[in-house]
Structures are given as C-alpha cells and as structure tokens.
Design brief:
It comes from Musa troglodytarum. The protein is of the alpha+beta class and about 250 residues long. About 40% of the residues lie in helices and about 25% in strands.
Length: about 250
C-alpha cells in the first residue's frame, strides 16, 4: 500500500491532461516518493507531455486552415444592381435584398450635380451563398416597372488595365448639363459614344461606366454638354436610336 500511495501522490502536483510539465524532484520527495519511483514517473511524464504538445500543434493547425477556408473576399459578395427606378433608395434596396440573405451594405449611386439616382447600385452580401441566392432570385425581375440586372462584380483588373481606366475617368469633363445613355452594347467605347453624340452639339465629355475595378461595361454612360438646349436636342434625336446594334435610351442625368 505504501508503494501504491507513493506512486499516486505525484498527481497532486502534476496533471498530464493539463500538460503542466514534470513535477520538480523536491516536490516529489516531499510527497514521500523514492528517487527510483521519480525516475520511472519522469519518463512517463515526458511521453505524456510530448503527445500533449502534438495535440496542441494539431489543434492550432486545424484552426488556421478553418479560418482561411471561411474567409470570403468582398469582390465575390459584392453585387452590381443596374436599371433600377430613380425612386428606389438605400432602405428599400436593403429590404429587397434582405429577403434573400443577409445584407452587409447597400448603396444607390447618385449624381453629384442633380442629386438624382444614376439608376444603379451596389449591394454587398454577408456571404457568397447569399450573393448567389440574390442573383438567382432578383436578376431580370421587374422593380417599379423596370427589369433590373443583378450580377457579381468581376475579377480585379491588372495594374496596367486599371491605370488606363483611371486615365479615361480623369479626362471626362463633367457638367451640370448632362445626358444619361442607357442600354449600351458591350462594344460601345467612350470614343464611340463621344463621336455619336457630337452630331447634335458640342460634347464636353463622354464616358462609358464600368463595373468598379474591371473593364466590363455597366451598359450605360454619360455625355456632358455646354447647355441644356444641347441636352434636349440630343434626347430628341437619339432616344431609341440604334447604336452598335442596340436601341439606346437617352434622358437627362
């Protein structure tokens, strides 16, 4: 019985499950164990500690992998929403998408001069699954009498492509006298748009809107003029006209 109690007494100082290390010899001897039994238990404790360290390392590795897998980039959750009614605001947009998943952010784009909606928006969902569900349920559906477009933003551009688009954006001459041009063919460029509208007035600037961070056309653009009369003339001449095989829509921006 004396031998058994001596062998069990180290448990008062060491719990292998907690990996707290090997008990010091002084504590072992105070508990009444012999030096021989301490040496035997030391070899047992070393193997227990080693296996516990392995368990710790394994647990950490699994956690690291899990956090990598669950991280979803914003670009894969961010949706472009086009051809929306001018009356649709951020709150209504959020409610519409919240029916199909959890919404992180919803933002309607407004013209900085007129304060009117530019007829498109961006919605960021909380997960890729929610984003895909929103696309499936809302793309090509009618909202306020307009068939909206919902799709995920494209992969990021290369640095070279992005700098070209930034240069194109910086050369656009904005003006309070501006026309919105919708339903543009994907082949329409800024130069094509500018030349087309130059027939009916002095074009100060023209640009085809792109899905942010990509070279993909959003299907609409803007043309700025020097007066409201020129804007009205462009609307009268080009609304429902054909450009690159598609009937375009032209109205005041």
């Amino acid at each position: 019985m004396a031998v058994i109690s001596s062998f069990l007494s180290p448990n008062l100082y060491h719990n292998p499950r907690e990996c707290s290390g090997i008990p010091k010899a002084s504590a072992w001897l105070v508990a009444g164990a012999s030096p021989a039994s301490y040496r035997s238990f030391s070899s047992f404790s070393l193997s227990s500690s080693a296996s516990c360290s392995v368990r710790r390392r394994r647990t950490f590795s699994i956690s690291a992998v899990d956090s990598t897998v669950t991280a979803e980039p914003e670009a894969a959750r961010r949706l472009y929403v086009g051809n929306i009614p001018r009356t649709l605001d951020n709150e209504e947009l959020t409610k519409m998408f919240a029916e199909h998943g959890s919404v992180e952010k919803a933002e309607v784009m407004y013209d900085k001069y007129s304060g009117r909606s530019r007829r498109f928006a961006f919605v960021t969902m909380n997960s890729v699954e929610d984003a895909n569900a929103a696309i499936e349920k809302l793309n090509d559906t009618e909202v306020g009498g307009r068939k909206i477009k919902v799709n995920v933003t494209e992969k990021p551009l290369t640095t070279v492509d992005l700098s070209l688009l930034q240069a194109e954006e910086s050369t656009f001459v904005d003006s309070p006298h501006k026309a919105y041009v919708g339903n543009l063919a994907k082949t329409v460029t800024t130069d094509v748009l500018s030349k087309f509208f130059s027939e009916k007035g002095k074009v100060l600037g023209a640009k085809v809107s792109r899905v942010p961070g990509t070279s993909k056309s959003s299907g609409f653009g803007f043309v700025s003029f020097s007066s409201d009369d020129e804007v009205e003339a462009a609307i009268a001449s080009f609304n429902n006209a054909m450009l690159e095989g598609q009937k375009i829509r032209v109205n005041k921006a």
